[in-house]
Design a protein that fits this description.
Blueprint: H1 2-23, H2 37-72, H3 78-112, E1 116-118, E2 124-126, E3 140-141, E4 155-158, E5 166-169
Antiparallel strand pairs: 1-2, 3-5, 4-5
Helix pairs in contact: 2-3
């Protein structure tokens, strides 16, 4: 019986090597390699948010410039001046609204929910909530709810006095 199992095992190991020789082994795709799918999804979501913000800002700027060109080419006609004034007002309101949305979004997702945080380089990191996960030493954390991975002396502490950024680190005496 043991001899039969060893023969079957040898056949499977030879066939597995043969498959790689015939079809080749898997190749990782170009670009950043995401060993952690949650991290990869987080990067994709942050990139989509950043592209949306950039698109909205460029659209508001173009609309403002369109209103300015309309103003300059109006030749003093009241109707054209009023249209240009409305375009520039709407563009300015759009920019103010965009800044307010970014501020509210940052407060809600970062400070309240703790889903989007800034890393040590100042870049946004989208972290999907997971069950029983811990924060690696040196990474940003939320003081009220994060659990640091390393043993007891590691705690979620402020990066600097008065700073709102917290990092899992060893407390200094």
């Amino acid at each position: 019986m043991i001899k039969v199992l060893s023969i079957i095992q040898a056949i499977f190991s030879i066939s597995a090597q043969g498959i790689n020789n015939v079809f080749g082994s898997p190749v990782k795709p170009p670009g950043p390699v995401f060993n952690n799918p949650v991290e990869g999804l987080g990067r994709i979501i942050v990139t989509i948010i950043q592209i949306f913000i950039l698109f909205a800002a460029i659209t508001a700027l173009i609309y403002l410039l369109w209103g300015a060109v309309t103003w300059v080419t109006s030749e003093g006609e009241e109707e054209k001046l009023e249209k240009a004034r409305k375009k520039m007002t709407n563009a300015a309101l759009g920019m103010i609204l965009l800044i307010a949305v970014i501020g509210i979004f940052t407060v809600v997702t970062g400070d309240i929910l703790g889903v989007i945080r800034r890393d040590n380089d100042g870049n946004w990191r989208f972290e999907l909530p997971t069950v029983n996960s811990c924060v690696v030493d040196g990474q940003t954390c939320i003081q009220s709810s994060s659990i640091c991975c390393n043993p007891a002396p590691i705690q979620c502490l402020s990066n600097a006095p008065g700073s709102s950024i917290y990092i899992c680190t060893t407390p200094t005496p």
